Amino acid sequence: MRLGQWVGLIALIISLYILWKIRQVVLLAFMAIVLATAINQLVKWLVQRGVNRGIAIALSIISIVTIVTIILALIVPPFYNQLPQLIEWVPQGLDRLRVWAESLQSRLPGQSLEDARVFSRLTEQLPGFINRLLTNFYSLFTNSIQIILSLLLVLVVTIMLLANPSSYWKAFLLLFPSFYRQRVNKILSKCEVALSGWLIGILFNMTVITILSGLGLWILQVQLPLANALLAGLLTFIPNLGPTLSVIPPAALALLDAPWKAGAVIVLYILIQQIESNLLTPLVMKHQVSLLPEITWLSQVAFGIFFGFLGLLLALPLVVVAQVWLKELLVKDILNTWQEDGEDNQDSPMAESEETST
């Protein structure tokens, strides 16, 4: 390779290394972009009704911060107050569940008896697991300074993006060759549409799941139905893993009353997730980017391993954006226009971009 190519390769390696070292900051910046995209839809709606853009931004941010504060005030204090009681009482409830399971052993023949014994042994191991889980939740709430600082950083960057989005948009376009900037501008617009559609769909799902969870827990007379319902709705943002985590607090609270009630809560949440996956998601799919379940699972695992909880939280919007780029850049602009030597290449998007730029 020539000297210039070596310099470019070394610069690329150094850039990737720097990005890896500051990956948490990059993810926080992406979170700000996702929030700015969502808030900008509300800002545009207000501007279309004659509100000044600066005032529209202020009203939108104040409204969202107020709603989030109210939701957190309804969720965090009740669970925080219940944690010491849960740490003490949940093992007792699990002991009651184990005794109840053992009482079934004498009534169930054959394979059913063996299943009951396995269930009994499982309940013997659950108290330690539940204790560790609740203690970790307690540590999460008591060591929240870093989370607060990260949220403040995201909020500041979001406001900056909303105040002057075109400047950042144009700055990003400068990273690409001049002949390809018009094409990148179209891809960015499609990313914005895809993110907006996905956000509309996920907010709709979160709202419906919150309502269904609240009604079900209220009928079962589980403690803190509103807080648990709001938590279930928020965790819907993390598909697959979120619903699994959301069932733990209400099931633990129900276990304090009766083992059968904990089972009823688990069945309730399974039914709600079936409604979400088989009814709600197809209804809103026209507003979302269609993602295969396997891709969703693999992306969550991969981003969770490499980037921790923040990567897990942002796995789906990252995949939504990545899918648009792969479809437009890799498939349409490269693979679909890949021709043998000597064939005409004038119809490719990159050729069109070159002609437009010249």
UniProtKB/TrEMBL annotation:
Q: Which residues form a coiled coil?
A: none
Segments spanning the bilayer are: 5-20, 26-43, 55-76, 144-163, 193-220, 226-248, 260-281, 301-326
**Taking the first listed entry, what is the main subcellular location of this protein, grouped into a coarse class?**
membrane
Protein's UniProt keywords contain Membrane: yes
Q: Which domain of life is it from?
A: Bacteria
Report membrane topology. Answer: Multi-pass membrane protein
List, alphabetically, the Pfam families matched: AI-2E_transport
- The answer to whether keyword S-adenosyl-L-methionine applies is no
Q: Which UniProt keywords apply?
A: Membrane, Transmembrane, Transmembrane helix
As for subcellular location, the record says:
Membrane
Q: Which PANTHER family does the record match to this protein?
A: TRANSMEMBRANE PROTEIN (PTHR21716), TRANSPORT PROTEIN YDBI-RELATED (PTHR21716:SF62)
Which protein family is it in? Answer: Belongs to the autoinducer-2 exporter (AI-2E) (TC 2.A.86) family.
The protein depicted here goes by the name: AI-2E family transporter
Q: Look up and give the organism this protein is from.
A: Funiculus sociatus GB2-A5
What broad taxonomic lineage does this protein's source fall under?
Bacteria, Bacillati, Cyanobacteriota, Cyanophyceae, Coleofasciculales
